[in-house]
Amino acid sequence: MEFEHRVKGVIKAIPRGKVATYVQVAALAGNHRAARQVVRVLHASSHKDRLPWHRVINSRGGISLGRGRGFEEQRRLLLQEGVDVSRSGRIALEEFQWEPEGLRSRAVAKFLRELNREDT
User: Fold this and answer.
1) Quick one: residue 16, left, alpha or beta (phi over 0 = left, psi -120 to 50 = alpha)?
2) What structural domains does the chain harbor?
């Protein structure tokens, strides 16, 4: 329950016009291996807790929701906030990824850079 509370706090902290990945949210909440739990929190609590769910995307910089299953709404909400989203749902992480300030976030940023290197 504590992790879920931290996840909600991280999601609420993502500023307008920025995005964070599921892994990034999990890492900032204290467990970089809990990206699937972030998905569950979003699914169960987005509307009830008024979370800016649309600001959370996958680690490849894309919208994970399928067409007809939330893709269009997420894309529309991001575009309204000034986030450039391609027709296929891609977002330039180097431009729009949220990078919170502070010592802990530098460690998270380092982890995410290493994770991204592994993907290439």
Assistant:
1) beta
2) 2-119 (1.10.10.10)
